[in-house]
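User: Show me a protein chain along with its predicted structure.
Assistant: Here is one chain, sequence first, then structure tokens.
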Amino acid sequence: MTERSGKPASSEPGSRLIDRLNLPADLRTLSPAALRQVAEEIRTEIIETIACNGGHLGASLGVVELAVALHAELETPKDILIWDVGHQCYAHKLLTGRLKSFRSIRTYGGLSGFPTREESPFDPYGTGHSSTSISAAVGMAEALRRHRAGQAGQSQEKVPKVVAVIGDGALTGGLAYEALNHAGHLRTPVLVVLNDNAMSIERNVGAISGYLSKLRTDPTLYRWRRDLEAMIHKLPGVGERVAAMGEQLKDVIKAALVPGMLFEELGFTYVGVVNGHDIEELRTNIRRCLSLDGPVLLHCRTIKGKGYPPAERQPGRFHGTPRFSVRTGESVDPEGPTSFTRAFGEAMVQLAAADERVVGITAAMAAGTGLDLLKEAMPDRFFDVGIAEEHAVTLAAGMAAAGKKPVVAVYSTFLQRAFDQIVHDVCLQKLPVVFAVDRAGLVGPDGPTHHGAFDLSYLRIIPGLTIFTPKDEAELQRMLATALQLEGPAAIRYPRGAGVGVPLPRPITPLAGPWIEVVRRGKDILFLTVGPVVRLAEEAAENLADAGISCTVAAVRRVRPVDVQALLPLLKAHKAVITVEDNVLAGGFGSLVLEVMAEEGVVRPVARAGLPDA
């Protein structure tokens, strides 16, 4: 394997089996040994590429054999294959015509790190957020079934198979159970493949995780069920008598014999647990599942990071990794200033130590949000609810109603999943819940499904919610202290990545204002900014100064309620206004400034810089 970017010698066209195949069609004709070779070549390509580009390594390595087996048994893209979340889709992409372009993954103009409908017909449904695959699969299967019924007698083509691959981490999301429940009710012909690696990003939590653990650690249950059923049917008359005993007795026998009783009760035929790294075993069971009527769940046991020892040892670290050395597994990117996420996590520990009412809540993102620091320091003040943002917010509301000061740490893109709970459970009741909105703005290689592009727009319409926009990591810490003193709800939005490098406050004291800070004074143009984009405005002001145009740059530190009395003199003192934000323009900060100007009768030319509505 190589250490640097660029194609390794072993990857020259024609030197590998995968370079000579017409994928995925040729998979159906290969011997078991050849399929294993394909899997190993795919795994090597993933490791070498992600070492150069960064990306979601662990999950993708864990499903290489599963991807090979699925494409060997399905006729994609005619048959439909949906990957939940989608971060584990790298092997799928390599097997579906994107081998030559794979080295561009997660780069500007290159392949997406997630399935996208625009990229390939082999990606029939775009994903990026968790727990959506089963609902989408049920919808597509039911649409195809009704289309087929409407063409009765007119077509001899078989109905496409529909398969959803979902991880046990994603199975902690309530949407997945809504879909399982509905599929069982409709008897939808869909195959759900449960990729069970006992992980989401970190170790899974909750009762469902414990239930799956019991199934995966005792695979003899499945064998007992299979063998005992076969024995019963072989005994003369016994099988018929059991069938005649009535539903109640059959349910008792079923409960004793069926390891996946939860899924069976939801109307699914449960098959498992099978070895998710044995291609032949996978193919046999996939083939069997596709032959059954109604909804089927195939439970596969996999290892996150399979085939790369550093990722197997540290699956959480290699869930989403920056560039790294293949030989050592260590990052090759230089250390930067303290990240916003780290600054938040450190502040949570300090502020929780000073106030026993402070607790932290995350939806399966402890390390990603910085709350792992609180978990290590004060585990009894830390709550991981699994991939359940709606529950996280309402849990926080309940805690606040009982006297706690909960802080919900969540990525901007995932917070939008809990919009109703923010409105109904927190803000309408004026409960003191703090939302630490990480990854606000653009997030780089993870792409459109993960950009925090909408939070200013959807949060600022909610009555009673205070919104802070720190320009650096020091302000973030002080604004967290400020928010925890409020009697109502608050949100603090901040970006991914390294901070500015300013000294952090010790001790952390609340920020009392001013809520609009002038960082550069001029007389012609007023730049109004939110968050760290203030530095872009400062650069623009420098360039304009060279052209003889004098600019003021102001950082708006609290967007809601905006300090109108501080804003009006600035607006009136300049000839033109430019707003700068890392949110969509529709309903964002620029819209807020225009609203204030309209209400106050201030007329100035205004240009808005932000994310386009597209």
